[in-house]
């Protein structure tokens, strides 16, 4: 009898595994991994990154990537709870799949970058807003620099920050229009350092594939110090950036783990 029970239990287990694999096999353009309790990462084949945070009552999808077909269906296989969709900024590699959702949340300063083709409802988030998922509260913090409306999302209970491209993934792009003063980015780095002093310990960036781990405070500090060196003309020698994205002649500087890509024509009057 025990042998039969064990056999049927094995069959049930194999059947469940087969069912789960079948569920996700149709999404060949994305890899889904559970990173922590109630936290999943979705990594697109085009090196885009999305995070799904699940509370007791709701779930939060952070960014939508670009090339993941039927993203809404994939999310419904991970969680059955109502999903809020927040974009950390409006660049296409983070907001390219908003079409699958009837409404999104974002900072108003990035509406200039949002595709006009989106017909859903746009809800605006401000610095200090709280998203209550039930048992998990996510705080919105405005971190301009990469874009005017870049935000990070703070899960104080877990010690996590979901940063989009606010601080990059080993390098941050500050050469994209509309440009912000370099001092704006420095102020955002300082703000993030204070948040980490207050209890945030892990920064999950918007292109996780390049590092495969969350950042700690030392990375944010390295970014701030490099930006300050640029303003003070004490940075290492700048070199031409390999891709002419955002401006005619982008340059980059590197110091330790931090790299900043910038527009040299904009640097002087960004020193404010």
Q: Which tags fit this structure?
A:
272 residues; alpha/beta; 5-stranded mixed beta sheet; 27% strand
Residue share in β-strands: 25-35%
Question: What name does CATH use for the topology?
Answer: Metallo-beta-lactamase, Chain A
State the name of the first-level CATH class. Alpha Beta
Strands in their spatial order, largest beta sheet: 1-2-3-4-5
Evaluate the radius of gyration: 20 Å
| Structure annotation, total helices | 6
Kindly describe this structure.
The protein is α/β, with parallel strands linked by helices and 272 residues long. The protein has helices spanning 2-25, 71-78, 92-95, 182-197, 217-231, 264-267; strands at residues 30-36, 39-44, 49-54, 59-62, 83-86, 103-106, 121-124, 130-132, 137-142, 151-155, 160-164, 171-173, 202-205, 239-240, 251-255, 258-262.
List the helices and strands and how they pair.
Layout: H1 2-25, E1 30-36, E2 39-44, E3 49-54, E4 59-62, H2 71-78, E5 83-86, H3 92-95, E6 103-106, E7 121-124, E8 130-132, E9 137-142, E10 151-155, E11 160-164, E12 171-173, H4 182-197, E13 202-205, H5 217-231, E14 239-240, E15 251-255, E16 258-262, H6 264-267
Parallel strand pairs: 4-5, 6-7, 11-13, 12-16
Antiparallel strand pairs: 1-2, 2-3, 3-4, 8-9, 9-10, 10-11, 14-15, 15-16
């Amino acid at each position: 009898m025990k042998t039969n029970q064990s056999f049927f239990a094995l069959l049930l287990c194999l059947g469940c595994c087969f069912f789960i694999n079948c569920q996700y096999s149709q999404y060949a353009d994305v890899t889904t991994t559970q990173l922590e309790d109630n936290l999943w990462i979705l990594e697109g084949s085009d090196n885009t990154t999305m995070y799904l945070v699940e509370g007791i009552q709701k779930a939060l999808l952070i960014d939508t990537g670009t090339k993941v077909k039927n993203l809404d269906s994939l999310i419904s296989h991970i969680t059955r709870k109502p999903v809020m969709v927040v974009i950390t900024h409006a660049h296409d590699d983070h907001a390219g799949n908003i079409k699958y959702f009837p409404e999104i949340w974002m900072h108003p300063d990035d509406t200039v970058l949002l595709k006009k083709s989106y017909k859903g409802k746009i809800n605006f988030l401000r610095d200090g807003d709280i998203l209550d998922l039930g048992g998990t509260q996510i705080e919105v913090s405005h971190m301009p620099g990469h874009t005017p409306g870049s935000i990070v999302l703070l899960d104080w209970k877990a010690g996590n920050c979901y940063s989009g491209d606010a601080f990059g993934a080993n390098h941050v792009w500050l050469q994209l229009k509309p440009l912000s003063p370099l001092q704006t980015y420095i102020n955002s780095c300082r703000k993030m350092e204070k948040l980490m002093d207050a209890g945030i310990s892990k920064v999950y960036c918007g292109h996780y594939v390049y590092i495969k781990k969350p950042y700690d405070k030392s990375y944010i500090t390295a970014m701030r110090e490099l930006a300050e060196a640029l303003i003070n003309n004490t940075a290492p020698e700048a070199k031409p950036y390999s891709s002419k994205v955002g401006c005619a002649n982008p340059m980059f500087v590197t110091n330790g783990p931090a790299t900043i890509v910038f527009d040299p024509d904009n640097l002087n009057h960004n020193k404010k």
